[in-house]
């Protein structure tokens, strides 16, 4: 939690004001941030200086694992986070590739599970990683990439957390996740939970022990309309100790994640937090 607050403070103290064309807003911005989460010790990196809707964050990631391309499927799992990007962004609404209400196009999990091959057919990147890690194999290329520039025009948003690399040392599993663009008040609150939970889940379904998760962020920003709440409210609060994440031990395979898992299979214990803060969201 301290590292999150340190990054927020660093943006407030050292950030540069950068115009963003896509949203029409200015962002206070720094470049390069490295965060680490101790999954081995179950130090769940949930923000405590405001109430965090962690179930929505996990739901979003399960949707990526399932390869969802529709905001309605995300809502059914328990998160509305894709409603705005699927239905309120003018450029996407005018895009001929948009298949209708709630369509997100070829983003995130679509690339992760069905990356189109130029010679026909698809690559299921996640399946290959799970199969290898289950056999104790790390071929130094256990990489899940959502970043497909050849299909950016077919999706509502380029992926922000775009690459996840798994590494095995003996039977301890590590994850390094890369993020090109980070809305620190809103997005990072979710992304921290997602990186942690992804490693915990992958270790569980491949029969390995979770180690550390490393989260590397390039452009970390606070939108102009979020700054006051961050600087004058959230940063004035003292954090509480990290809570713990409990995952249903019956989740044993990728198929389990694809079929019956719901947000009821995740529990957080010891979550002490300050009052909610509603940050503005930029589409
Ligand atoms: N500007 C922007 N920031 C993001 O973080 C972001 C995007 N766009 N577009 C794609 C996804 C969608 N994500 C989102 C979208 C909404 C919330 C949000 O509104 N969170 C609120 C309430 C969540 C709830 O009630 O479930 C929060 O207080 O965290 C968070 C992440 C993360 N990503
Ligand atoms: O998982 C996510 C997804 C998105 N974001 C944020 C980062 C930016 O503020 C926007 C995306 O805008 P771009 O113009 O495509 O960079 O969404 C996030 O923090 N985490």
TrEMBL record:
Name of the gene encoding the protein in the UniProt record: thyA
Compartment list: Cytoplasm
One GO-annotated biological process of the protein: dTTP biosynthetic process
Enzyme Commission number, as recorded: 2.1.1.45
Function according to Swiss-Prot or TrEMBL: Catalyzes the reductive methylation of 2'-deoxyuridine-5'-monophosphate (dUMP) to 2'-deoxythymidine-5'-monophosphate (dTMP) while utilizing 5,10-methylenetetrahydrofolate (mTHF) as the methyl donor and reductant in the reaction, yielding dihydrofolate (DHF) as a by-product. This enzymatic reaction provides an intracellular de novo source of dTMP, an essential precursor for DNA biosynthesis.
Associated pathway: Pyrimidine metabolism; dTTP biosynthesis
Source organism phylogeny: Bacteria, Pseudomonadati, Pseudomonadota, Gammaproteobacteria, Alteromonadales
Enzyme type, top EC level: transferase
Keywords on record: Cytoplasm, Methyltransferase, Nucleotide biosynthesis, Transferase
Subunit structure, interactors included: Homodimer.
A GO molecular function held by the record: thymidylate synthase activity
InterPro entries documented for this protein: Thymidate_synth/dCMP_Mease, Thymidate_synth/dCMP_Mease_dom, Thymidate_synth/dCMP_Mease_sf, Thymidylate_synthase, Thymidylate_synthase_AS
Domain Thymidylate synthase/dCMP hydroxymethylase, residue spans: 2-283
SUPFAM superfamilies noted in UniProt: Thymidylate synthase/dCMP hydroxymethylase (SSF55831)
Designated name of the protein: Thymidylate synthase
Major localisation: cytoplasm
Recorded catalytic activity of this chain's protein: dUMP + (6R)-5,10-methylene-5,6,7,8-tetrahydrofolate = 7,8-dihydrofolate + dTMP
Binding site for (6R)-5,10-methylene-5,6,7,8-tetrahydrofolate: 183, 282
Record: residues binding dUMP: 22, 180-183, 191, 221-223
